[in-house]
């Protein structure tokens, strides 16, 4: 693996999942990365991605440097050819290249603008960063995808599934603010690399971009989608068609204990952070069928498997 920007960089997903699960049994691999530096660059807030990737780096013996650009770095100009006479003193061209001088691998988080669909779906910032960094790059959630999260989600489903071909349901759920489509896009993309039965349920107007929805079954009736499900994966996202808009906040789409009764005693999953009694009610989130904490725990092993693969093939 040269870099990890999307599902397309995972040549063999079952092998990557097996690697993560074997690392989970024996996580300390200090010799593998003891001579290397990992830089983690955040343009947006994070709890899980920051700490789990940092821990993965430490498990590999790496020196890990973390920088929050939103509060600590110079504001970055990303457009080429502009007169930089505004409030952005540093160009991404120099910033990425300089970070590449200090680090052997760089993780970057840069969310969608939710205002310019073309630029977001072209992965304008991530591509620029990759172009100038000069070292392998790991996507820690970009405008359109969150592959470390999705790899984690598959690892977790593999751990908990009780039949070879589980029914996995991605359900939209209400949220007060406009959120990117990245987690939902990525989850849909990765699940469709498996042979699981896969259903996406959401209100009309929340259709994912066709390249991410792929051939998934779309069911506008949430109750029907939940029938016989083994895993309920909840997530909010703003509209792709009416780009970045919150079309409604219908609490009837919240995942409740009553709705979970339609499933095959399904496990409840969410990438976190999650808004209680908005996305999911307390009864579901606090039940023994909720595996959100175990899922978050697996973020370490997903990140470590990716770092391990990049180190072995490139460094
Ligand atoms: N799921 C996830 O990426 O969490 P953070 O935003 O806290 O990193």
Description of the molecule:
37% of the residues lie in helices and 15% in strands. The protein is of the alpha/beta class. The chain has two domains: 7-145 and 299-314, Rossmann fold, CATH 3.40.50.1370; 149-296, Aspartate/ornithine carbamoyltransferase (Rossmann fold, 3-Layer(aba) Sandwich), CATH 3.40.50. Helix 9 (210-213) links the parallel strand 8 and strand 9. The longest helix has 16 residues, at 299-314. It is globular and about 55 Å long. Phosphoric acid mono(formamide)ester binds at residues 46-49, 141, 149, 271-273.
Largest sheet features? 5 strands, parallel
Q: Which CATH first-tier class of the largest domain would you pick? A: Alpha Beta
Summed up, the helix count is: 14
**Per CATH, what is the topology of the largest domain?**
Rossmann fold
The radius of gyration computed from the alpha-carbon positions, rounded to a whole number of angstroms, is 19 Å
Low-confidence stretches: none
Instruction: Write down the overall mean pLDDT.
Output: 97
What share of the residues does DSSP label as strand, in percent?
5-15%
Secondary-structure content class: alpha/beta
- Spatial strand sequence of the major β-sheet: 9-8-7-10-11
Number of domains: 2
Shape: globular
Distance between the termini: 11 Å
Query: What would CATH call the homologous superfamily of the largest domain?
Result: Aspartate/ornithine carbamoyltransferase
CATH level-two architecture of the largest domain: 3-Layer(aba) Sandwich
* Helix-strand topology string: HHEHEEEHEHHEHEHEHEHEHEHHH
What ligands can be seen in this structure?
A: phosphoric acid mono(formamide)ester
């Amino acid at each position: 693996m040269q870099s990890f920007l999307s599902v397309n960089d995972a040549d063999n997903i079952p092998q990557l999942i097996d690697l993560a699960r074997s690392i989970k049994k024996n996580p300390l691999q200090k010799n593998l990365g003891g001579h290397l530096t990992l830089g983690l660059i955040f343009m947006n807030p994070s709890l899980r991605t920051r700490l789990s990737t940092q821990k993965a780096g430490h498990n590999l013996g790496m020196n890990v440097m973390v920088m929050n650009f939103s509060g600590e770095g110079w504001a970055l100009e990303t457009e080429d050819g502009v007169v930089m006479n505004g409030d952005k003193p540093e160009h991404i061209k120099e910033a990425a290249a300089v970070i590449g001088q200090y680090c052997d691998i760089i993780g970057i988080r840069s969310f969608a603008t939710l205002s310019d669909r073309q630029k977001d779906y072209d992965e304008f910032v991530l591509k620029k960063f990759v172009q100038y960094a000069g070292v392998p790059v790991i996507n820690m959630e970009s405008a359109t995808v969150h592959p470390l999260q999705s790899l984690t989600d598959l690892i977790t489903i593999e751990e908990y599934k009780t039949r070879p071909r589980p029914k996995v349901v991605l359900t939209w759920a209400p949220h007060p603010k406009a959120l990117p489509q990245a987690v939902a896009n990525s989850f849909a993309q990765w699940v469709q690399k498996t042979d699981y039965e896969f259903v996406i349920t959401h209100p009309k107007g929340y259709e994912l971009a066709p390249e991410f929805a792929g051939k998934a079954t779309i069911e506008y009736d949430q109750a029907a989608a939940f029938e016989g499900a083994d895993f309920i994966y909840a997530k909010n996202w703003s509209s792709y068609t009416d780009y970045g808009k919150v079309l409604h906040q219908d609490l009837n789409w919240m995942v409740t204990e009553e709705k979970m009764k339609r499933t095959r005693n399904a496990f409840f999953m969410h990438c976190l952070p999650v808004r209680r009694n908005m996305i999911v009610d307390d009864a579901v989130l606090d039940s023994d069928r909720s595996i959100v904490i175990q899922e978050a725990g697996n973020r370490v092993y997903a990140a470590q498997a990716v770092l391990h693969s990049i180190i072995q093939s490139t460094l």
